[in-house]
Amino acid sequence: MAAFTIYVVEDDEWYRELLAHTLSLNPDFTVRKFSNATDFLKSLANCPDVVTLDYRLPDMEGNELLKRTRQLCPEAEVIIISEQDKIETAVELLTMGAYDYIVKTRDIRDRLLNTIQHIRNHSSLKRRVATLEQEVQKKYDFGTAIIGDSEPIKHIFKLLTKAVDSNITVTITGETGTGKELAAKAIHYNSNRAGHPFVAVNMGAIPAELIESELFGHEKGAFTGASFRRVGKFEEADKGTLFLDEIGEMDPNLQVKLLRVLQEKEIVRIGSNKPVAIDCRIIVATHRDLFKEVKEGRFREDLYYRLFGLTIEMPPLRNRDKDIILLAEYFVNQFSKNNGKPVPAIHPEAKKKLMSHNYPGNVRELRSVMELATVMSDGQQILADDINFRKNDELYEPPMEGLTLREHTFNIIKLYLKKHDDNIKEAARELDISYSTIYRILKKEE
């Protein structure tokens, strides 16, 4: 840990030397001594980590000195050391912002050192959190999180900036693999809610009978198997952002409850009658045309208009020609560094092959292709033969023997789930089976 600066403010010379000596035994502590408030306040141009403050000094009362210390140096933690053991005085000073209140005794040493160690640990944690927040914010800087220099992406950057500058509900649309969740995170981590949680929920990947508990939580005993209280995603996202992915898959009955939550700004856990206030920004995403879903009766019109705010349509990769090679090189660089391998160059013929593909899987497909190409290359250069695209009809090629029918069925379901980003309803629709059948088959293979 870095050196820790402590100011000891005490007019009793013997006690001042006792405190200073006790603290100086730790080589990580830098200790300065003051006998009066005037000299101490003049020194606060350089803010210490901790101040031990005598409650009664000849030139200023403890309450006033604590107040001025907090004003001049809000980062410093203040420990009041006093001969008084009145609870009322201690409570008042703690309310004013003192970290601790310690009564003067000859055996103060252990209490003081323990308190300072707690402060030091907390300070270290705050620094780590601040560093992490800076790293996260840098990671989700628009130009870092979303790679591209094409006109469609420049337009997206403008819309993201508008989303960050307000608390408007945002709807992110676009094909699978275009980076909808990445855009949602970029909005959150560049907004004034960045220090609070970003909570993502894939509405198409959760069974209808569980989604209400997932979103709103439940009380112990609310239903069979509810052996403890569960906090829902709305409460998890308090002061932060709740990202509802694939909102178009939401069950109509739940749409009514979501509308009520958005209107009332409160939820009620299953098994409870007590409303819980919520404060989270809502960002939703879908690959569907929600207006068309409304017209065809699959999505509530009132909820649609409640969610209708700023719409950001993520462009498909086939409309971002200028970005394809930029993204390919980024993925190769990232994958190589993460695996401790040299970064291979992309041969011009390989670039031509990349530019000629239609990318039905969008950016996600390109990333997968480039990671495989990096592995297949000789480590120096990625050639055209290292670039391999799957054809649409290559989703599943069952072997002629060696697997049971159940194993074939399981593999097919897993592949269709992968194709649809674990969206069970979409996989069930394409396979023409119920999604309860998918759950049953997956459960049998666990």
Automatic annotation (TrEMBL):
Record flagged with keyword Nucleotide-binding: yes
Domain of life: Bacteria
Name of a matching Pfam family: Response_reg
InterPro entries (alphabetical): AAA+_ATPase (IPR003593), AAA_lid_NorR (IPR058031), CheY-like_superfamily (IPR011006), Homeodomain-like_sf (IPR009057), InsJ-like_HTH (IPR055247), P-loop_NTPase (IPR027417), Sig_transdc_resp-reg_receiver (IPR001789), Sigma_54_int (IPR002078)
Keyword vocabulary terms for this entry: ATP-binding, Nucleotide-binding, Phosphoprotein
One BP term from GO: regulation of DNA-templated transcription
Keyword field contains RNA-binding: no
Single Gene Ontology MF annotation: ATP binding
Segments forming domain Response regulatory: 5-119
4-aspartylphosphate found at: D54
Domain Sigma-54 factor interaction: residue ranges: 146-375
Protein's recorded name: Sigma-54 dependent transcriptional regulator
